[in-house]
């Protein structure tokens, strides 16, 4: 980060501090902590440590999710020729962000990031800078209002050309299964044939994971719903799944040097016919 970028980010954070509750943990900041970042508060570190004390594998899951993002975006930008990405619930920037991966393959790629956390958006505007051949945009919007997201994204993306819709670990914040499926459907509806859904979420496949998540939910933070793998597969209904289908994170087209084990999260990439 340049000196000017650091000054802009610091000033924006000072302006925001009065609106941020630093007494309640926040999932994006805890995720940043698990990934080795620095954008979190003591309450987030404490919640993250409490979580890992019950379920240490969450750190591996966080890293595996980031690796899946990279592999999926590289595949779509490379082999599939996708040049537009709508990343909903982007979280705090770390290494290997969507625009960095996509523009590393295709410099002219356009990316729209969506989040409803003001701290996330401040970091995004300061750090998620596009290559000159492409573009990045940032929308403050609520996942529970997908029509608003789609309408505002259409101001920056060409919905006559394929778009990769990315829902990376965020549908767990929608407790109701029917609402979660409706959100996915509404976000996909205006996208043209040849668009893609890229999605992962945590699974209710380990008792320690369930216990750790319950403890986190009881802190007053926004709760997260762990689902059965079949429930995650249901989000891809009507889409053409890319091989190998909906699988544990590390099994989706793994790199030759990557970890081929399993974590308690499932992912997939589906093409809209």
Automatic annotation (TrEMBL):
InterPro entries: SAM-dependent_MTases_sf, SAM_dep_MeTrfase_SAV2177_type. GO terms for biological process: methylation. It comes from the Bacteria. GO terms for molecular function: methyltransferase activity. It is an enzyme of class 2 (transferase). Keywords: Methyltransferase, Transferase. Its EC number is 2.1.1.-. SUPFAM superfamilies: S-adenosyl-L-methionine-dependent methyltransferases (SSF53335). The keyword Cytoplasm does not apply. This is SAM-dependent methyltransferase. It comes from Actinomadura gamaensis.
């Amino acid at each position: 980060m340049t000196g000017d970028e650091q000054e802009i980010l610091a000033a924006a954070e000072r302006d925001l501090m009065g609106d941020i509750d630093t007494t309640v943990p926040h999932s994006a900041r805890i995720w940043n902590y698990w990934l080795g970042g620095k954008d979190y508060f003591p309450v987030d570190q404490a919640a993250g440590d409490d979580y890992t004390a019950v379920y240490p594998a969450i750190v591996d899951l966080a890293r595996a999710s980031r690796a899946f993002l990279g592999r999926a975006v590289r595949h779509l930008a490379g082999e599939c020729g996708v040049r537009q990405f709508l990343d909903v619930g982007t979280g705090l920037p770390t290494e290997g962000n969507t625009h960095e991966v996509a523009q590393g393959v295709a410099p002219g790629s356009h990316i729209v990031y969506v989040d409803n956390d003001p701290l996330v958006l401040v970091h995004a505007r300061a750090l998620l800078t596009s290559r000159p051949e492409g573009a990045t945009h940032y929308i403050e919007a609520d996942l529970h209002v997908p029509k608003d997201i789609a309408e505002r994204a259409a101001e920056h993306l060409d919905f006559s050309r394929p778009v990769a819709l990315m829902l990376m670990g965020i549908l767990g914040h929608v407790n109701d299964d029917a609402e979660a499926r409706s959100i996915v459907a509404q976000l996909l509806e205006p996208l043209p044939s040849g668009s893609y859904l890229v999605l992962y979420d945590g699974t209710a496949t380990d008792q320690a994971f369930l216990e750790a998540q319950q403890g986190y939910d009881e802190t007053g933070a926004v709760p997260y719903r762990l689902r059965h793998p079949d429930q995650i597969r249901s989000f891809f209904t009507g889409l053409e799944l890319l091989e190998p289908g909906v699988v544990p994170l590390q099994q989706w087209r793994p790199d030759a040097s990557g970890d081929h084990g399993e974590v308690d999260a499932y992912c997939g990439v589906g093409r809209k016919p």
